[in-house]
Specification:
About 40% of the residues lie in helices and about 20% in strands. It has about 325 residues and is of the alpha/beta class. The protein folds into two domains: about 160 residues, D-Maltodextrin-Binding Protein, domain 2 (3-Layer(aba) Sandwich); about 100 residues, D-Maltodextrin-Binding Protein, domain 2, CATH 3.40.190.
Length: about 325
């Protein structure tokens, strides 16, 4: 195991082991409204996930959980807002993949590992590798073969430098040993429009954006980015099993709180969110928006964050990624 991952997980384990003696003191949490700060605008999968969770937690806790959208700067503004709140568990940050990519791209006013405590991963958002239907490939292996025969000629559209769909493509290039031309757009919608129009050859698309076009025959799906087959498209093989072993890239969202939040409060939030995410009704709601519930312990989430930071740091360096 990577030494830094072990150390991070060990620190989290030591911290949260202190929770039990103080549990009774915080058993009444929450006694008032809770804020859930979301780094993206209303309407997208992250926001929809947060609103499902806020509704379920409001029902569970008997206190309102209010979603607050603090957009801008790829999640920095949301993290800063959470940093300014008291460390009491009444402000939750919906942490996202950007919070583990940005440390490799710019100087930040916070440290996502030191200034925040991990509570749990909430959901992952699988990415589907899709191609225009007239591209003569039907499998990941065939795409890889074509790309190696035509280095730099095949293009993939993405939603912007440093975003999930861009990073997924760059990681694929690294692990498959191919040279693809990355074409940036300002969001997934224009990237998808150009793929449908035949202006780019392929895309690593979030599932909700890709699936309607796949079902109408306007796109061909080749593989999914998760390490195991997804409930969103169980018939679709993973990219990892299709010739790129170990490939794993997806957007995700989880819950973090300010460092200094009482351990018993963190443990209570974790236990209740895990319970909620394991509820079949919640799972059904989330799958409908392209989110796969993935509850974790705080220790597991700490290790996950460390792994993501290290993985994307390598991709950013090798691909020479710069922010727009």
């Amino acid at each position: 195991m990577n030494t830094r991952i072990f150390a991070s997980a060990a620190l989290a384990a030591a911290f949260f082991s202190c929770a039990a003696p103080a549990a009774h003191a915080d058993a009444a949490y929450p006694t008032r409204a809770v804020r859930l700060i979301v780094p993206f605008a209303p309407g997208g999968p992250i926001d929809q996930t947060a609103r499902i969770m806020s509704q379920r937690l409001t029902e569970l806790w008997g206190k309102p959980v209010v979603v607050e959208n603090r957009t801008g700067a790829n999640g920095v503004i949301a993290a800063e807002a959470a940093m300014q709140a008291p460390a009491d568990g009444y402000t939750l940050l919906f942490s996202v993949i950007h919070h583990t990519v940005l440390p490799s791209l710019q100087k930040l006013p916070y440290d996502i590992e030191k200034d925040f405590l991990p509570v749990t991963l909430a959901a992952v958002y699988p990415i589907i590798l899709v191609v225009r239907p007239d591209l003569p490939v039907r499998t990941v292996q065939e795409l890889t073969k074509m790309a190696k025969a035509r280095p730099g000629k095949l293009s993939f559209g993405h939603s912007g430098y440093g975003g999930g769909t861009h990073l997924a493509g760059e990681l694929f290039k690294m692990q498959a040993g191919v040279d693809l031309l990355a074409v940036p757009y300002k969001g997934s919608a224009p990237a998808m429009a150009d793929l449908l129009g035949g202006h780019v050859d392929l895309m690593f698309s979030d599932a909700p954006t890709a699936l309607p076009h796949i079902q109408m025959g306007k796109l061909r799906q080749l593989g999914i980015s998760t390490p195991e087959r997804s409930a969103l498209a169980p018939e679709l093989p993973t990219i990892s099993e299709s010739g790129v072993p170990g490939y794993e890239a997806y957007s995700w969202g989880g819950i973090s709180v300010r460092a200094g939040t009482p351990p018993a409060v963190v443990a209570k939030i974790n236990a209740d969110i895990v319970k909620m995410l394991k509820d079949p009704a919640t799972q059904e709601q989330m799958l409908k928006i392209g989110a796969e519930p993935k509850p974790q312990t705080p220790q597991e989430y700490a290790a996950f964050i460390r792994t993501e930071i290290e993985k994307w740091a390598k991709v950013v360096k090798q691909a020479n990624i710069r922010m727009d």
